[in-house]
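Example record for the data management plan.
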Amino acid sequence: MRIKFCNIKMEKVKSEKGFTLLELIFVMVIIGTLSSSLILPFISNLKQATRPEIYNTATYIAVGELEKVRSDGYNGMKTLIGTANTQVTKKGRTYDKERVTEYVTQSAGSFNNSATPTELIRVTVTIANPGISSFSMWELLTDDFYN
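Corresponding structural encoding:
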């Protein structure tokens, strides 16, 4: 009876189904290879998807600065001739903002810097962020002759 009991137990162990360690390792290697090859393009696409958001925010900052310049006008900007650098943080990202205010003269359709006060002031706003290349926007202010 004892022998029969052992034989039954051995047959039961042989009939149990499952994965061997070799099969599990093989499947894990395949899953690891496939996931690593799929994750890299996903991450790069995610970075590229945030680039338009960074450009839009940078444009928003530059346009806001130029709106302030327009509201101050020529007389308000005369006292701010030179360069001003600041940092702006929007949506957790830091942007470097540079405003260059200078007198310019116009000749043959182009504008040239002038060391002396003229009737035109050019204000250039440059926005930079590590995620994008820097870009500039500018505004010309004219002296109001009716003051």
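Summary line stored alongside the record: Residues 19 and 104 are 80 Å apart (CA to CA).
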